[in-house]
Structure prediction request, 273 residues.
Amino acid sequence: MIIIGALGVVLRKHPVHAALSLVLTLFGIAVLFVAQHAEFLAAVQVIVYAGAIVVLFLFVIMLLGVDQVENLKTEPLAGQRWVAGVVGACLLGLLGAAIYTGADSVISRGEGIASNVAGDNPDANIQQLASSIFSDYVMAFEITSILLVVAVVGTVLLMRRRTVVKS
Amino acid sequence: MNALIVVPTTTWYLLLSAALFTIGTVGVLVRRNPLVMFMCIELMLNAVNLTFVTLGRRLNDIDGQAIVFFVLVVAAAEVVVGLGIIVAIMRRRSGITVDDLAELKG
Prediction:
């Protein structure tokens, strides 16, 4: 299902259909997060990606006109699809080979992930993640907050219509 | 009964992630619409997130999930800025593809 959604992003002509396929993929990945005991990240994935980012994409698509169906039949650059297919196959083969050769060399070293299912504390995953973020990575957390503010201010400045300054 | 349920291993998660990343890469290389290219970049980011969570579980370490949190934040900021740039360009010249954006060529 995830692969179908991902292929839909690439292959659908209409940008709206591509965005909806992206929602399918994102929900599938959220389900896989739940399956791997990352419940908080699954919730964040659904809220931030499927909720905010895809809505933003759809909003921009609607803003720029929905009827821009891309012509996928013609190839703008000669041989581009072929080269892209070869590059993709090479990348997939490389990653697959790396996964197969390196899968056994991964050794568990951490202190363990608290699971919501195993323990009797229903918020164990969130508590452990929060203690990790707010103690070990609190500096990175603050920097991401600065990054978000800079992004928001920059976008607002970018989108502002130029007005004549009366002095 | 239990034999019918296939438990996906770490390798399968990683292979799925690799497939998603490859699809995103080919999408960026093939598509011309800048919006769809952005969606393909999101696809690649999600593939990497899946890898982080999978290896975090395999390594029994919460740091994998912590870094996915930061990747989500950075991806949100990146989408906001990128879409702002796309809208600013499209406002001036409507209906273009990335091939037409050769103004900065020296």
In short: The helical segments of chain B are 10-30, 34-58, 63-92. Chain B touches chain A through 69 residues (CB under 8 Å). Chain B has three helices and no strands. Chain B has a mean pLDDT of 80.
